[in-house]
Amino acid sequence: MHIKKSGILALAISSLAAPALAQPVQPKVLTIQADKPIASVPSTMWGIFFEDINLGADGGIYAELVKNRSFEFRQPLMGWKRLGKPMEGDLLVLNRTDNTSNPRFIRIKRSLADTSTWVLSNEGFRGMGIKKDLRYDFSLLYRAEQAGIKLKFELRDSSNHLLGEGHLTPETPDGQWHKQSVSFQTQAGALRAHLDIWAEGAGTLDLDMLSLFPADTWKGRPGGMRADMIQMLADLKPGFIRFPGGCIVEGYDLSTRYQWKKTIGPVEDRQLIINRWNNEFAHRPTPDYFQTFGLGFFEYFQLAEDIGAEPLPILNCGMACQFNSAELVPIDELDPYVQDALDLIEFANGPADSPWGKIRASMGHPAPFHLKMLGVGNENWGPQYLERLAIFEKALHSRYPDLHIVASSGTDPNGERFDLLNTGLRKMNINLIDEHYYRPPSWFFENAGRYDHYDRQGPKIFAGEYAAQSKAIASPDNKNTWETALAEAAFMTGLERNAGVVSLASYAPLFAHVDGWQWTPDLIWVDNLHVYGTPNYYIQKLYSTNKGTQVLPLTEQEKALSGQDGYFASAVRDDTKHELIIKIVNHTNEQRPVTFALKGVKKVQTTAKQITLNGDLHTPEETTIKASAKKVDAQLAPNSFNVIKIKLL
Ligand code: AHR
What we know:
Elements: H1 7-12, E1 28-33, E2 39-40, E3 48-49, E4 80-84, E5 91-95, E6 104-110, E7 118-122, E8 128-130, E9 135-143, E10 149-156, E11 162-168, E12 178-185, E13 190-201, E14 203-214, H2 227-235, E15 240-243, H3 247-250, E16 273-274, E17 290-291, H4 297-306, E18 310-315, H5 335-349, H6 355-362, E19 373-376, H7 383-399, E20 404-408, H8 416-428, E21 432-439, H9 441-446, E22 460-468, H10 482-497, E23 502-507, E24 511-513, E25 524-526, E26 531-533, H11 535-544, E27 550-552, E28 554-556, E29 559-560, E30 567-574, E31 579-586, E32 592-599, E33 607-614, E34 621-626, E35 631-636, E36 640-647
The structure holds alpha-L-arabinofuranose (AHR).
């Protein structure tokens, strides 16, 4: 694994904080009972949580390069700029009444007498990342009564150098809307390019859905996703993907909640809404942030399938964000919300001839998506939540008894709100409780044993959103420091040790664009052409790619190792790969020797792998150490996370 340290990564990662837990160096002997597993590691254990925040979808994984392609932003020409010499009335913004989901379009009017040039330029999402020698696919919807106007497209860099150009003449000027595409090759690339559209000739031409995609999308799908960003997710081999949020599920108010049915079918019919992160933080306003839903539920399910992750959609429970409008759907009006959930299951799993399964099939996926889990509500709380959840639970389980329902425990992992929900959800015997913790690194170190005494018979836990905050919760000054990554690594030993009760875990948020973020820290930082994994990303990756199948007892004097002398550790066995895998954090400023005494092991390969990540490296480094069936000795660098892999023979 290699982490590039560049200017942009430096933006996301600040200097390393060294904890002050100096202890006398002493050999530590830890015992691993390899033949007495205490739990199975669920295949879902380490997953990802995707939300359209920080330009995560539009301007992020959704590879569309044109911003406001359908002129449906509040300001219809936001992102667009007239160049050349405009004439009065040669560009009009109009609405059609027969299309309520995408009413606006533009009209170009030119006469033969016009001496002006007609150029409309799109700035992209913080510019357009354009690659050299790549095919770009431009498409639009047009309507013309007669032939007359031709279009030319030019991609130009910030110094106005031409990167590539294409031409399009509307083929069917019959007064009806048509889709037409043209592809062209670039001769040069740029990080922040723009697209100039020239209209030449005379006549009237209506345009909508002006769209530009690179050819090298994930799996080469037209209108698809940014391959480099998705590859970072695929590399994690995530057990699940939670989507689409997060707070965007709730909406500022109910009118801006996420409604999955409006995100499927032809993209031009998907009704755009404001992204709640547009104006959520006064200190990080993003007035051009909208949800076009070019990525919708079909694409999320398909992504889950592509990367081998279980889909975990979260639906609105009839409550808007309680930090914002706190709008509530009256209980006797909740039916449409419940019906949305029932219909989603049919959309995902129903036969290709069922009403919703048919739509999935028409979108190119007749086979089911095998949805097994569904979240009701994001960070909702209070008796109103429990009351609404109970209605969903009854309706969903009476029709789909095996469905795993994920319920919210609110915004915090403790306190009155948490206690009320935790008690209520356990009484309801809900399948999974979603706990969120955005806390300082110290909290993660101190709470590594959080689940050691959780009830094994009750609901399973989903650590649905967590990230150590270097400054304060959601502070714009938070950085992905090594201290935060190490704190998460330490905490995750506790999750792994308690895989018998914790079934899923995901860091949050997942992506951030260096020029368009609202929330820090984030797992993966991107610009228009590059992706950068933070140290926190590599911690996640070391866990998820070394998941194992069985949790083993790892103890010092019969006690789990959860912070004693600055050590945190857990162990798993992988019965498929025949490996014993130890994860251990040394949270001290000293190099420490450690001996793992192995019990119940017959024979091992005499060389084992030690993978180390620390604040000096930012890059996991692999070394070879000696191993026997009785013991393995290792040196742990100061403030390091180590994965030790022993081959069982
Ligand atoms: O991850 C960012 C936000 O944090 C999520 O949208 C929300 O669920 C939480 O408050």
